[in-house]
Specification:
Layout (H helix, E strand, L loop, with lengths): L2 E5 L2 H12 L7 E5 L6 H11 L14 E5 L22 E6 L14 H5 L4 E6 L11 E7 L6 E2 L2 E2 L1 E8 L9 H7 L4 H23 L6 H10 L22 H13 L5 H11 L3 H8 L5 H4 L1 H6 L1 H10 L2 E2 L2 E2 L2 H12 L5 H22 L11
Parallel strand pairs: 2-5, 2-6, 4-5
Antiparallel strand pairs: 1-9, 3-4, 6-9, 7-8, 10-11
Helix pairs in contact: 1-2, 5-6, 5-12, 6-9, 6-12, 8-9, 12-14, 13-14
Amino acid sequence: MKSIYHTKTPEETMALGQKLAKRLSGGSVVLLCGDLGAGKTHFTKGIARGLGIQGIIKSPTFTYVNSYSLIEGKGKGDGTESLPAPSSQPHAFHHYDLYRLSPGDDLSSIGLDDSLNDPEAINVIEWADRLQELPKDYIQVHLKTGGGVVESEEGSVHELAIEWYESAIVPESEVQDFWDEWKTPEHVRAHCRQVASVALQLGQAMIHAGKIIDLNALNTAALLHDMSRVCDFKTMDRNHFSEPITDEKWDAWLQLREQFKGQRHGDIAAKFLKEKGYHRTAHLIAHHHFVDLLGAPELFEDDLELAIVYYADKRVKHDQIVSVTDRLADGRERYLQNATPEKVKTSKKIETLVLNLEKKLFEGVGIEPGDIK
């Protein structure tokens, strides 16, 4: 899923690149595609600025690559100075321009293979369509202007389509297979689809407001957040399911409940996906439980996708999108009937945090919670 942004000036294009820089870490690769004048170099300048690099960033059309230190504060490409960076951050930023190369040309002589395999480097590659082989993980940014892009009173509008291709994220094509493997009940699947709908609606609104959002990560995490929900249903009554329950399915559910007895379904699913290598999806799923917002609020402040998945789950009652207040009332009715005073007090604290989270998520995005349907 592509996140589509529009910029009207080079400064706006650079500002968007600066925002993306905050999402980059050691090993990140950004592939830039688009015609001449589409804004690739301005976007790269923004990324460099976001990484703390000061001075003039020039496209290395004739040298193929300019490299900058993110530790010592000295760039090797054109003498550019950079701000000191904590040792935990990437040590280098490599800016490639492959314009003078033809598709399929040998790139080993310019050091691209080495820098792409450097886990402590960030690579940005202009004219990435020249690459014969794509990296395993990358962020693709396709820029265009002119034809097909709306004109504004200020002039040409640039369109930037950003999409994450990460092996740590479950591809949508595998969601059905995981549902089937875990024998996820049909009504739970319906709930997950609605949670994904809420998450994507909010994510799109944030993108329209200029925030950097990975829609692929949002979508599959929302679809799989309750994948193993049958493992910790409070009660199990075969007659309460609307779908046909075969003996095989019922036995499988009972076995899963016995195998994972006492564990939370989010933790179960997260561990399973982490073992499959889907670390990012596992992280987003692991923290969607109601109490998680109280236990580690800082996680939700630093990770928009995590906050959106958590919030989207609090907007869906069964398979219907409802208000947060309705969903919280439903939770009180289902889980606090015979609760201790201490548990009721804790629940009220979390409810306040959820309402505050909603306010923060919708701040400046141009829509209200009631607009999500």
